């Protein structure tokens, strides 16, 4: 170091200048003191900057967190209507809780709506399962041959069979129908189990009759069995338009329903059902086809 009075170079640990006798102050202590002051100032400045940053950072995200909380609440409410909104509400609420350690109302609503949606899905699943079971149970024969047309068009079923021939056409009936013992080559007749219900099929080629004339002859035959009032309407038998006639036969103590129609080959067809109920087996004719 140098003497502050004469400027001579002296030893660092000298207390007096050997050239001019000047008393040497300990400059290292002064330097350290200055350094400490500077360091303390730097620390204070850094603390101020840090505190300002903390204040700045905590003030701006706080508003964002509240916005996040509000959005979570909105999506939580919408979650009761649209399931995906509940998921969004839960995600936003979880993010809000992570940043603020507070529970968002939207988070709770999202969980509730998800739980309700899950319960609703379970109920819908049960309803679908029960409906399938109900439909399967309905596939069993109910005495009225309901839905036979669907079975005929969509494939065979173990509870049903196809009856008829290439001359008279074909029908789908339950397996409770059996070939009637008195059938001959002119007609096909089937009886329903052990009841007196009878299904008859018949066809005429080159008869020379119009459909109306043939239907009138059938009506006369019905009246001969003691029918007073014979109903008349146009219905579908398979893909054909037919004249349907129905009446109660007093001599046979049963109802008789007949269907008369012509196919594209000008063949007249006749189908009839005798039963103790005027609604039994009415759907059978909807399954009619010329070819098996």
Question: What this model shows, in words?
Answer:
The protein is α+β, with helices and mostly antiparallel strands and 292 residues long. The protein has a domain at 148-287: Protein Transport Mog1p, Chain A. 43% of the residues lie in helices and 21% in strands. It contains 5 helices and 9 strands; from the N terminus they run ααααβββββαββββ. It has helices at 27-78, 83-100, 105-138, 148-154, 211-224, and strands spanning 160-165, 169-174, 177-179, 188-192, 198-204, 231-237, 240-249, 254-262, 268-275. A 7-stranded antiparallel sheet has the order 3-4-5-9-8-7-6, with helices on one face. It has a two-stranded antiparallel sheet with strand order 1-2. A hairpin with a 4-residue loop joins β7 (240-249) and β8. α1 runs antiparallel to α2 (83-100) and α2 (83-100) packs antiparallel against α3 (105-138). It is rod-shaped, with a radius of gyration of 51 Å. The termini are far apart. Mean pLDDT is 78; it is low at 27-40, 52-60 and 139-146.
Our estimate of the beta-strand percent is 15-25%
Uncertain segments = 27-40, 52-60, 139-146
User: Which CATH class of the domain at 148-287?
Assistant: Alpha Beta
CATH superfamily of the domain at 148-287: Mog1/PsbP, alpha/beta/alpha sandwich
**Which strand order spans the largest sheet, edge to edge or round the barrel?**
3-4-5-9-8-7-6
